[in-house]
Write a structure and sequence with these properties.
The complex is a heterodimer of chains A (503) and B (542).
Chain A: E1 5-10, H1 14-25, E2 30-33, H2 56-61, E3 69-71, E4 74-76, E5 84-86, H3 90-98, H4 102-127, H5 138-152, H6 156-165, H7 170-177, H8 181-192, H9 204-214, E6 224-226, H10 229-243, E7 247-249, E8 254-260, E9 263-269, E10 274-282, H11 286-295, H12 301-308, E11 316-323, H13 334-337, E12 340-343, H14 347-357, E13 367-373, E14 381-387, H15 397-413, H16 419-422, E15 423-429, H17 431-438, E16 474-476, H18 490-502
Parallel strand pairs in A: 1-2, 1-10, 2-7, 4-12, 10-16
Antiparallel strand pairs in A: 3-6, 4-5, 8-9, 9-10, 11-14, 11-15, 12-13, 13-14
Helix pairs in contact in A: 1-10, 1-18, 3-4, 4-5, 4-9, 7-8, 8-9, 8-14
Chain B: E1 3-11, H1 15-26, E2 31-34, E3 47-50, E4 53-55, H2 67-72, E5 82-84, E6 87-91, E7 97-101, H3 104-114, H4 116-140, H5 152-166, H6 176-187, H7 190-195, H8 201-212, H9 224-232, E8 235-236, E9 239-240, E10 244-246, H10 251-263, E11 267-269, E12 274-280, E13 283-289, E14 294-302, H11 306-312, H12 321-328, E15 336-343, E16 363-364, H13 369-380, E17 389-393, E18 408-415, H14 428-443, H15 449-452, E19 453-459, H16 461-468, E20 504-506, H17 520-532
Parallel strand pairs in B: 1-2, 1-14, 2-11, 6-16, 14-20
Antiparallel strand pairs in B: 3-4, 5-10, 6-7, 8-9, 12-13, 13-14, 15-18, 15-19, 17-18
Helix pairs in contact in B: 1-10, 1-17, 3-4, 8-9
The chains are: A alpha/beta (503), B alpha/beta (542).
């Protein structure tokens, strides 16, 4: 048996590419097997709307990542035309909010400072592999101690506040602080984005902190668009891969992991081809990794049960409307149309949209995050992220898709009355489509819910938290691992480190 | 104007106030308990509101009361008797029923009728939950350490907490896997938790009930699994998780406590509402009552919830602003209502076969978690649930002292009823409409129920607030969510029963470990007072 490669990475999503390149730079011979024709996974126009910036630690371990970002401001649309426009700069935002309520403006700055210091305390923890509680290794204890100290160094008052906030719901915190319902709705929107929580679900606050930690520790700053779109981003990663001599096999989906003596030694493709390597890394989601690659016969019941109940039902659909002219949004100027437009008018509105989704039903009044592409050209495209569009909707996506799209357009019509007449074509990508087309179980952005019981050392499941799986030689580097999804590359980087440590 | 001086004043004669008072009286202190109502017992009372029937008109079943407290205060000597009940049942619209029994094997057989897989899973489930109960039990008795303090007491306390979790399995602590399971249990929703074990809706719905009683969370809200644990960690006669009736109604508990207090020289003064805490230089020195009397003492212990204590009877100016802000934002939400019904006979529930012990305890008719969550969604909108979760029982079946022979008393607890009703709030008409609706819901499962009704009392969160003094009618005196448990309860930095005012303490359910007729907050608070007064403590509890 010949070992052809040092490492095989399964899946060329951005985390897989990051992981492969870091290993290649350390002189490993790396092969990536990608099931689809294109690389990049969920980093694609049809999925991604806005992205955070790749952290410096990730780009520097790749030897630099020449990607240009364009910062985006946010506008919360209101039916009455009293929109709130925020840019992520404290002084400007304070002034904007004072226009609605001077009390809210002052509170906002306080609230933001507090949240920002918490997300910073979490931040360093997110960049590294999470410690296990009783691994009895010095480095794990040290990491735990460091996190404790990070939080403790915030000071007594903030420490207490932090301890309180971990399980809090965002609605309570916002209602305690602000009176403007549109502002409440906007912040709550960002707290529940991509998750299976409503603003009144405990744990939605840590969701926001989590998001802030990858978005420059800011609520409305740190939201970017990539120059040239996500294609430019993926191309850059592919260029680097070329330089690092990473081999990429597209259209080659992996059927299973080949094991010998309880160790992963290679992969078998659906074509029947077998490729061997010292280490295998899966960029697939945890469920696919365990159930498809590892196979249930290799799992003990406890692990099987945990993976089976790993929660990864996607809640976000992407609707793209290609338009024949620029729609007229009420009381919006050109600048507004270029920002991130959010329709989530109040906490109660979001909660009502969330309610049916708990049992996989659809609300006909969902919450939206919109981006107008090519706004200055004759054929603009309105990209809309629609939440809570449940995976496996009870109504049946095939049956209800058209009605749902119409409902969303009708909703947009409240803010842009002429939208209907501008539409040329409409395409919707539901979580079910994401599952089918991108091989992500449940079609979840983060490959698994971001909730406390699936975070840190519990991500994706207890016992597999440090990028290692229950099978020797098989690793995970996808969004299902700590710290989760978003265009950050951190899981990929951390996984590469775990492999280098083991070698 | 009378002037009275004592060692300790306890404000409020609820079960925690009386527990704290009894412990302190036993330690030799001169204790007086001031109660606003004419009756004693707070939310643990038996009242004859309709001639011939005794109503446990607030709390209605017993399990959480710590056995050490019962022994220390010799409650059995003062007349307390707990009658365990044999089972519980959920009635189904198709005429079938689902029951749990005191006897484990009977429960398994009963579950097997609905799902073989669930019957198997129940073994695993009950073992796992029991394990969590054992883990949490010693924590109930602890004063939560202040994690921000570097005082030796707090450092050791934190260490004790950590040791408890982190010790190796052989040493009685938890292994790594179990720590993860504990973290998950504390943060998950009951729906997700039960999904990991069971397949049938009825099993899940029956079990999930315990996770929503009294809370403003739904079965899908993360954190609701903990509420289930909170209801499971009690015991009756050493049988963990069992529930029972207090003979003579819940008032017998507080009556026995008062008996213990009196025997040790303490006094309860009903009809003495405290309206003001008298302070001097940042110290609490006494209280003033509505009648105009003033009482002075070395220590003041408040059994009122944290909001009432600091926003109603204490001058805001004597407290740090930040503390007041925190207290204002303390979540204490009314989510439950109650019907107390005097019946002329035993209502028939055709779903449950006659003589089946499943009908002897709490009965429900919510068949799916989705229904339950729907009831919660109504509440979030500010309405009472049209299809509510109901926890009803007929204590007079096992306790003849509640009603005359042949007559019966029925307690119906209703989950989700808002304190602030949308569109104008509560009034008499809307309250009666709510009562009628609940009666209709029950009548669906009992053909002769309506004919047997002699009288019923409707209680909304408003009544619980006004009459018993539970803010917003929250039965736990504060939501049992992560942000308000352990060292966060009631307010971070003040979780050790002490308050910003020197010599003033809290002993209500607003403090660790929280609500239920448990007595632990009272006993813990008494311990802290005694420590501060350098009085040695005795008893099983400490």
């Amino acid at each position: 048996m010949s070992e052809n490669y040092d490492v095989i990475v399964i899946g060329a999503g951005h985390n897989g590419l990051v992981c492969a390149n870091i290993l290649a730079k350390k002189n490993r011979k790396v092969l990536i097997c990608e099931a689809r024709e294109n690389c990049g996974g969920l980093v694609e126009e049809s999925i991604t709307n806005f992205v955070p910036q790749i952290p410096l630690s990730v780009s520097s371990s790749l030897g630099g990542l020449p990607v240009k970002y364009k910062a985006k401001s946010t506008i919360a649309l209101s039916e009455s035309g009293q929109h709130i426009r925020l840019v992520g700069n404290q002084h400007i935002d304070h002034k904007v909010i004072s226009g609605f309520s001077s009390k809210d403006a002052d509170r906002y700055v306080e609230f933001h400072d507090k949240m920002s210091s918490f997300s910073k305390a979490l931040g360093s923890f997110m960049m590294a592999s999470p410690p296990r509680i009783m691994n009895n290794t010095f480095s794990d204890y040290f990491k735990l101690f460091k996190l404790g100290m990070n939080v403790r160094m915030l000071g007594k008052k903030k420490f207490n506040e932090f301890a309180r906030m971990i399980g809090l719901n965002i609605a309570d915190e916002l209602e305690d602080n602000f009176e403007n319902t549109l502002l409440q709705g906007l912040i709550a929107h960002d707290a529940v984005l991509g998750s299976n929580l409503g603003p009144r679900s405990p744990g939605s606050l840590i969701n926001l902190l989590y998001r802030m930690a990858t978005h420059d520790n800011s609520i409305f700053g740190g939201i970017y668009e990539i120059d040239g779109g996500s294609k430019a981003f993926v191309d850059t990663l592919l260029d680097i891969s070329n330089k690092n001599k990473v081999e990429i096999k597209t259209s080659s989906s992996v059927k299973r992991c080949i094991t010998e003596n309880d160790k992963a030694i290679g992969v078998e493709l659906h074509s029947g081809e077998k490729i061997y390597a010292k280490k295998i890394i899966s960029n697939a989601d945890p469920r696919s990794t365990y159930f498809c690659l590892l196979g249930t016969e290799n799992l003990d019941t406890d692990v099987k049960r945990r993976i089976k109940h790993h929660r990864s039902k996607g809640k976000v659909a992407k609707l793209s409307l290609s338009l024949n002219k620029q729609p007229e949004f009420i009381n919006c100027d050109k600048n507004d149309l270029e920002s991130r437009m959010v329709i989530a008018p109040s906490i109660d509105y979001i909660e009502e949209a969330f309610n049916p989704s708990k049992f996989d039903k659809l609300s006909m009044e969902p919450i939206l995050e919109m981006k107008l592409k090519n706004s200055d050209q004759s054929n603009p495209v309105l990209d809309i992220q629609v939440q809570y569009a449940s995976y496996g909707a009870q109504e049946g996506w095939d049956k209800i898709k058209d009605n749902y799209v119409d409902a969303v357009i009708k909703l947009i019509g409240k803010y842009a009355p002429d939208i209907q007449s501008c539409i040329e074509t409409k395409t919707i990508v539901t979580p079910d489509d994401i599952e089918k087309n991108f091989y992500v179980s449940g079609g979840h952005w983060h490959h698994g819910e971001i909730q406390i019981d699936q975070l840190f050392m519990l991500r994706p499941i207890p016992g597999a938290s440090q990028y290692r799986t229950h099978l020797d030689g098989l690793y995970m580097c996808g969004a299902g691992t700590h710290p989760g999804g978003g265009l950050t590359g951190i899981p990929g980087k951390n996984a590469a480190q775990a492999i280098l440590e083991d070698a | 104007m009378a002037k009275n001086t004592h060692d300790v004043i306890v404000i409020g004669a609820g079960h925690n106030g009386l527990t704290a008072a009894s412990y302190m009286a036993k330690a030799g202190l001169d204790v007086v308990v001031l109660e606003k109502n004419e009756w004693i017992g707070g939310a643990a009372v038996s009242r004859e509101l309709y001639p011939g029937w005794k109503y446990s008109n607030c709390s209605y079943v017993c399990s959480l009361l710590r056995p050490e407290i019962m022994r220390d205060l010799e409650l059995y000597k003062y007349g307390l008797q707990i009658i365990p009940y044999e089972g519980s049942a959920t009635m189904m619209r198709n005429g079938d029923y689902y029951a749990h029994y005191h006897d484990h094997d009977m429960t398994i057989n009963s579950i097997r009728r609905h799902s073989h897989k669930d019957a198997e899973a129940y073994e695993r489930y009950s073992r796992d939950v029991l394990r969590q109960c054992k883990i949490i039990k010693p924590l109930l008795k602890m004063t939560p350490p202040d994690l921000t303090s570097f005082k030796p007491k707090d450092l050791f306390g934190a260490l004790e907490f950590a040791k408890h979790f982190a010790a190796k399995d052989e040493l009685g602590g938890l292994g790594e896997k179990e720590i993860y399971d504990t973290i998950r249990f504390y943060t998950m929703s009951i729906r997700d938790y039960l999904d990991e074990y069971f397949e049938s809706d009825i099993t899940k719905a029956h079990l999930a009930g315990s996770a929503i009683i009294g809370t403003a969370l739904g079965p899908c809200s993360p954190g609701s699994a903990y509420v289930l644990l909170h209801h499971y960690m009690g015991e009756v006669d050493g049988s963990v998780g069992a529930w029972g009736y207090s003979r003579g109604g819940m008032g017998s508990i507080t009556k026995a406590m008062t008996g213990c207090l009196n025997a040790h020289g303490g006094k309860v003064k009903p009809d003495n509402e405290v309206v003001n805490v008298i302070t001097k230089n940042g110290r609490a020195i006494g209280v003033a009552t509505k009648k105009g009397d003033e009482y002075y003492a070395k220590k003041i212990v408040s059994n009122l919830d944290v909001k009432r204590t600091f926003l109603k009877i204490t001058e805001e100016s004597s407290l740090p602003g930040e503390f007041v802000e925190r207290v204002k934002n303390f979540k204490i939400r009314g989510s439950s209502g109650k019907l107390n019904i005097a019946l002329d006979g035993l209502p028939e529930f055709p779903c449950i076969p006659e003589g089946d012990p499943g009908g002897g305890g709490d009965m429900h008719f919510t068949e799916t978690i989705e229904e339950m969550e729907g009831a919660y969604d109504d509440w979030k909108r500010g309405e009472w649930s049209r299809n509510p979760y109901v926890d009803m029982c007929i204590p007079s079946k096992s306790d003849p002292t509640m009603a005359a022979p042949g007559k019966h008393y029925m307690s119906v607890f209703i989950q989700y009823v808002p304190f602030n009703l949308a569109n104008g709030g509560w009034n008499e008409e809307r309250k009666q409409e709510f009562g009628r609706h609940i009666v209709d819901c029950i009548a669906e499962f009992s053909p002769n129920f309506k004919d047997l009704i002699n009288h019923y009392e409707v209680r909304t969160p408003l009544e619980l607030d006004n009459e018993v003094g539970l803010t917003e009618g929250n039965i736990f005196q504060g939501e049992l969510t992560m942000d308000q448990l352990m060292f966060n309860r009631p307010v971070p930095g003040y979780a050790q029963y002490r308050t910003p005012l020197k010599n003033m303490y809290m002993c209500s359910s607003s403090t660790h470990p929280g609500g239920g007729v448990m007595g632990a907050p009272g006993a813990n608070a008494a311990r802290e007072v005694l420590i501060d007064m350098n009085i040695p403590q005795t008893g099983n509890y400490y």
